[in-house]
Design a protein that fits this description.
CATH architecture of the largest domain in chain B: Orthogonal Bundle
Strand content of chain A: 25-35%
Helix content of chain B: over 70%
Largest interface: A-B, 32 and 27 residues
Distance between the termini of chain B: 56 Å
Number of domains of chain B: 2
CATH class of the largest domain in chain B: Mainly Alpha
Radius of gyration of chain A: 18 Å
Oligomer: heterodimer
Radius of gyration of chain B: 26 Å
Structural class of chain B: mainly alpha
Shape of chain A: globular
Strand order of the largest sheet of chain A: 6-7-8-3-9-10
Number of helices of chain A: 10
Shape of chain B: flat
Helix content of chain A: 25-40%
Number of strands of chain A: 10
CATH topology of the largest domain in chain B: MetI-like fold
Bound molecules: adenosine-5'-triphosphate, magnesium ion
CATH superfamily of the largest domain in chain B: MetI-like
Chain lengths: 253, 323
């Protein structure tokens, strides 16, 4: 089993403050890795370093290495645009393009990646992605309506579909279910298991049950430090560190 | 102690009464000021209509569609000036809109913050130059330069098109359009810059995370989000171009004719009023000039209404049934 994504001494800064501290983590190929930890501990920041989205924030920068298939994506010869085409992302808050139609939202990444895509192929991918994201049945009759016209939870699933449409190798999901009802959440969790064979998935979550249900590995972050990393089973049944145990049993957080 | 409290209480009560009274006064004053603006607008329109009446009675609707402007025979038609206003403004927008969008994108997307603020200030300074200075500069520098380089270039390579045919002159419709473009760029670009700056970072990030390049991000996230603002900015610029008087009067050549060639002299509604009002001898002449002013006012109102409808339509499309 290959290590799809590896971080080495990864640090992330907002101006002078270090929000992510010296993280060494391995995300194995074809597995789901959950990132857990209390609010503000740096989960989003860490995940955004994995596809070079962290540096987009004004005043922010990262150092250390992130190896994608052994190649350091922070190498000066690497184009961040190419990295982001291979590593897709769903943000914590839904970010559909409000004026674009639902259909165009899903296909937005396709127009970037593959210039001459046929109409039929495009429609096929749109439908497939929307089905995967458990949104197809709700929107199939008004694909031309603007993306901004959906509810918050629908918008989030639209963003999941948009990320899936370009078939990235790695999928980063930052609390994708925080705005979803239990049914959609269950559907997204099924999706993770379904996708696992073809994708490497990193999911940030506040929901311990979700992490336990969906992930193979779990990393616990606290105040920017990686406290513990291991197989999900072991983390939840037999954590090695006191802080991890306190967190997953709800004694602080 | 107790006495103090009582005093405070009484003071407070009095102050409340004073404040309520103050509120009422404030409401009345603002209402009055708003009413004054409305009354002024109506008074202006009515005065224009009354003074334009002789021309309207004499020529009727044909005033708008005939192109004789012949003070010697007391015959007046507005068409050359409507045409001149429309075409010079169209040239101005054709040049200014792409340039302004470029400037705005450069300031909001490309330049680092410190540079962007300084450059933005310089662009805004363009708006502070008096129009008569633009006019002088156009007569002595821009016009001859356009004639010698741009017009001769267009004439050589695109001269088969009637609009680029004919003799090249320094004063004419084309020069006026270019000056107007330069004059409206600061308005359009500074509004657009502000519009682009308020596009939420999450929208930009959504595009970037899909693997968009900077330009693709602009096309995917920034321009659509800012569309209604861009339309507003263009209408603002158009309003400026339609009404601009002195700079245009100095450089357009002031000839009441409709020529196919953009290089030929022309005149606009505003420029002919400024140029001929002092020498208007007959009552019908004066009245016709005032009627031109009325047409200009009407054009402005129509334009503003269209702008509002457009912006509202775009806004409605975005939030369509999102409630
Ligand atoms: N744009 C920013 N500028 C400055 N500091 C920031 C910025 N974004 C986040 N931070 C800081 O970085 C730290 C980590 O934030 P981050 O968003 O990664 O937390 P998180 O673990 O994702 O929290 P949550 O579970 O609430 O989403 C926090 O202390 C936060 O204050
Ligand atoms: Mg977060």
């Amino acid at each position: 089993m290959a290590d799809k994504l590896v971080t080495r001494h990864l640090n992330a800064y907002f101006n002078q403050t270090r929000a992510v501290k010296d993280i060494n983590l391995t995300f194995p190929e074809g597995k789901v890795t959950a990132i857990i930890g209390p609010s503000g501990c740096g989960k989003s920041t860490m995940v955004r370093c994995l596809n070079r989205m962290h540096e987009v924030v004004p005043g922010a920068h990262a150092d250390g290495e992130v190896l994608l298939d052994g190649e350091n994506i922070y190498d000066s010869a690497v184009d961040p645009v190419q990295v982001r085409r291979r590593i897709g992302m769903v943000f914590q808050k839904p970010t559909p393009f409000p004026t674009m139609s639902i259909e165009d939202n899903v296909a937005a990444g396709l127009t970037l990646n593959s210039a001459g895509i046929s109409r039929a192929e495009r429609n096929r991918i749109v439908e497939k992605s929307l089905r995967q994201a458990a949104l197809w049945d709700e929107v199939k009759d008004h694909l031309r309506r603007p993306g901004g016209s959906l509810s918050g939870g629908q918008q989030q699933r639209l963003c999941v579909a948009r990320a899936l449409a370009v078939e990235p190798e790695v999928l980063l999901m930052d609390e994708p279910c925080s705005a979803l009802d239990p049914i959609s959440t269950a559907r997204i969790e099924e999706l993770l298991l379904e996708l696992k064979s073809n994708y490497t998935i990193v999911i940030v979550t506040h929901n311990m049950q979700q992490a336990a249900r969906t992930s193979d590995y779990t990393a616990f972050l606290y105040q920017g430090d990686l406290i513990e990393f291991g197989e999900t089973n072991q983390i939840f049944t037999n954590p090695k560190r006191r802080e991890t145990e306190d967190y997953i049993t709800g004694r602080f957080g | 102690m107790a006495e103090n409290v009582a005093v405070v209480g009484r003071e407070t009560r009095r102050r409340v009464r004073v404040r309520l009274f103050g509120d009422r006064v404030f409401n009345l004053v603002t209402l009055g000021l708003a009413a004054i603006v409305l009354i002024l607008l109506f008074a202006l329109a009515i005065a224009l209509i009354v003074d334009a009446m002789p021309a309207i009675r004499k020529f009727g609707f044909s005033f708008l569609v005939t192109s004789d402007w012949d003070p010697v025979n007391d015959l007046y038609g507005a068409l050359p000036f409507i045409y001149g206003t429309a075409v010079s403004s169209a040239i101005a927008l054709a040049i200014a809109v792409p340039l302004s969008l470029g400037v705005a994108l450069c300031l909001s997307e490309m330049a680092p913050d410190w540079l962007s603020r300084r450059l933005g200030f310089l662009v805004d300074l363009l708006a502070a130059i008096p129009s008569v200075v633009y006019g002088l500069w156009a007569i002595f520098v821009l016009g001859p330069w356009l004639r010698d380089y741009v017009e001769s270039f267009l004439g050589t390579y695109l001269g088969f098109l009637p609009i680029f045919a004919g003799p090249k002159v320094a004063v004419g419709m084309f020069s006026a359009g270019v000056v107007l473009a330069i004059m409206v760029i600061p308005y359009i670009s500074s509004v657009c810059t502000d519009v682009f700056r308020v596009v939420p970072p999450t929208q930009r990030e959504a595009a970037l995370a899909l693997g968009a390049t900077k330009w693709e991000m602009v096309r995917m996230a920034v321009l659509p989000y800012g569309l209604s603002g861009i339309i507003g900015a263009i209408i603002l610029g158009l309003g400026r171009a339609l009404g601009e008087t002195i700079a245009v009067a100095m450089v357009i050549g002031n000839s009441p004719q409709i020529s196919a060639s953009l290089f030929a002299p022309a005149a606009t509604l505003a420029s002919v009023i400024a140029n001929e009002f002092a020498e208007a001898t007959s009552d019908l002449y004066v009245s016709s000039l005032i009627a031109l002013g009325l047409v200009l006012l009407g054009l402005g109102i129509v334009l503003n209404v269209i702008a509002r409808l457009l912006v509202a339509a775009v806004a409605r499309q975005r939030f369509d049934s999102s409630r």
